[in-house]
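Fig. S4 source data, part A: sequence.
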Amino acid sequence: MSRIADLVQRGVHVTVASQAKGEPTEIPADFFEGSDPRASTRFDSPADVPDFAAVYEEAEVPAPFGGYGVDRMAEILESKRLSSLPREVRVAAVMASLEAAGVSLPQVLRDAVLRERALGAFVTAKEREVTALKQRVETRIATLKREIEAFVSEKNAEIDGLKRGGDSAGSAFAQLQLRKRQEEERLRQVLSPFVSDAENPIPAGAGAGVPNKTGSTS
């Protein structure tokens, strides 16, 4: 239901002056309820559509009777010839134009009502689109965050593993150096009873810092 029809049903009286006699005529609420635009839950036109004409076309708003709709009325009111004249004169010019075309003011009002309904449907459709888009965006963001967290956790575990591997390798190498010195000292001591220190093929000090058989370090 349009706002005009809703107001009329609430007790607001909408009247127009008779084009012939200038006498006011009340318009019933059901006058605004006919010829509804096509009920549409989806519009191809974007929310930032530059011209609502595309919206009216999608909603299949019927062409105004005799070509005299609210847009034609606006053109007459805003024409250069009338723009500087008093409001009453411009209104009278519009009424005279409508009468000459055989179009009543209520028919123009109906054109405006249909357009307003089409705009309401358009806004509702775009609101649903925005809501659905936001839900998809939020879902995707949540998915990406989970993927990032899983990726970071995986890489942190990989980094920890690499660190442990490096530490283990360093420790093993240190042990290797110690064992090498121990083995060199053992070889030197085995040969020492048979050759002099100068003739020992294992140089003195090769096992420096390694305990010898007496318990002291050589």
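Fig. S4 source data, part B ends here. The first strand starts at residue 14 and ends at 17.
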